[in-house]
Amino acid sequence: MTKPPFAEIYHRQTKYHPATIERGHHIDWNNPPEQFKDYPGAPRIELRPYLPTNESEDWGAMQRLQDTDGPFSLPQLSKLLFATNGVTAMAISGGQKMFFRAAPSAGALYPTDLYLVVRGHADLSDGVYYYHVRDHALIEVYPEGLGPDGDELFRRLAAACFDDKGVAGARVAIVATSVFWRSSWRYGDRAYRRCLLDTGHVLGNFDIIAPKLGLCTFAVGGFVDQEVAELIATPEDKEGVLGVFPLFELGDFERVEPGPSARASSDVEPTPKDDAILSIHDASAIRRNTADSATGPQSSSEDFMLNPKYAFASGTKLKTSELNLNEQIELAILRRRSTRTLSGEPITLTELSDLLGFAYRADLRLPPEQQPRYFDTTLLETFVVVNNVEGLEPGVYYFAPSFMELLSVRPGSVQHEIFHLSLGQELARDASAVIVHTGDLDAATKKFGSRAYRYLHLDAGHIGQRLNVGAIRLELGVSGIGGFFDDEVNALLKIPAQELCVYITCLGKPAS
Question: Which three-class secondary structure state does DSSP give residue 44?
């Protein structure tokens, strides 16, 4: 009998069950993880002087800066990094400073780190830089010119990405990683899911803000993990590389020839480890000595499922309003906070339509160079649990993004069930609508091996972040849920066992 991909094994092992959840992971509250890395003695480039002094200043008017400072100027990079993953607020709790970010994170643990790879820059030496979130500064990873020159850096980076022409032709690239311990401290083995979702949140911001600053990007999910980790000097037993994103000016979009956004993992047996997170990350890696097997299944698809399930179900066509949520969306990123309590009051069908359109069908409003860059959204499917939406009967609906249509699959209120399966979180009970992202893990691993597990969660977190900032733009409440009883979700949605719930997002009116 063929052994299943390790992603399936990991997913089964990290399910929550009502009977066993109380016997879960022990949290050492006296040993919390550090949220920031330090490079003692390394050169620093301060980015804070280039930020506007308040959010009322024009965050979108970067073109005039480009005219005077050139592309990828420090003011431009400062805004890009700040609105992607920067500290947008601070509070004091128990005598300790708490830093709140532009992107949400489970338990406010923020496992995602960003690195900047540059060459030929007017103000930065060729090299790799760590973005220090708390200080809003760049720290040189290879101090005093100890690293390779810029051309060699990008040659190696492109080679690690299977000679991706988009990477090879860039002068600036972002590498996104996750520091596993920051999340596993609290969430144990299930934390890998959280790390991927949280990085997806950050990528959602990145994709929204880059075009506002005159930039475009491409997602590269197929790379030799070890080679990229070595290039940015990160230890693979603590931190995993999750994506590479070359940056270009918007005007260069047509000439860039990026490679596929996703490739399959080598899917060899992972090295035996006591740590489930390191095991799943290792199992979903691409290795140089087996790279040929990783270049088969590829994807550059940016479209969602074209052939919806439940084709004979009664449908509700969604009509968006004239409101363009992309206008001033950068201010929504700066004001974004996860809503703690929802009122249970209804939202309108138009508000729900606008949010789903902004999150899933940006192509209806934006030119190609400003479209979100996912890994492979054809792996994802979406259900909408309606609790209280004006003009829509309560029940469970399947959302067909390509047709902007809701198909009824289970009529009648399931408010009690969604409350229970969300671990008794009142947000799900009091939400007007609950968006549930799912995927067929069996089909996904047939296409991409265990690496599909990364793409499913990264893309779901990315879409979830678009729902987050879109809701804030509409002055609605929003919060994501990564903890749920997995099998109960399948039962509620009436989906088979090989399909998995990836993420849940609650939408509604915030309680005053």
Answer: strand
With a cut of 80, say whether residue 312 has pLDDT above it: no
Q: Are 204 and 469 in contact (CB under 8 A)?
A: yes
DSSP string covering 116-135: EEE-S-SSS-SEEEEEETTT
134 sits in the region (left: phi over 0; alpha: psi -120 to 50; else beta) called: alpha
Q: What is the DSSP string of 336-398?
A: ----S-B----EEHHHHHHHHHHHH-GGGTS-GGGS---S-GGGEEEEEEESSEETB-SEEEE
Q: Give the C-alpha separation, 182 to 35, whole Å.
A: 7
Bridge partners, residue 397, by sequence: 384, 408
Write out the DSSP string of 166-193: HHHT-SEEEEEEEEHHHHHHHHGGGHHH
Residues written for the chain: 512
Query: Would strands 477-481 and 347-348 be described as parallel, antiparallel, or unpaired?
Result: unpaired
State the average pLDDT for the chain.
91
pTM of this structure: 0.95
Contact 444, 499 (CB under 8 A): no
258-279 confidence digits (pLDDT tens): 999 999 997 766 666 679 999 9
Asked if 303 and 368 count as a contact pair (C-beta separation under 8 A), the reply is: no
> How many angstroms separate the first and last alpha carbons of the chain?
57
SS3 14: coil
Q: How many CB atoms lie within 10 A of CB 478?
A: 28
Question: Among the CATH numbers 3.40.630.30, 3.40.109.10, 3.40.1390.30, 3.40.50.300, which is that of 315-508?
Answer: 3.40.109.10
Architecture category of domain 32-261 in CATH:
3-Layer(aba) Sandwich (3.40)
**Is a pLDDT exceeding 70 seen at residue 1?**
no
In sequence order, the 6+-apart residues with CB closer than 8 A to the CB of 15 are 485, 486, 487
Q: Where in the chain is the domain with CATH 3.40.109.10?
A: 32-261, 315-508
Pairing state of beta strands 389-390 and 347-348? parallel
Strand 315-317 relative to strand 405-411, pairing: antiparallel
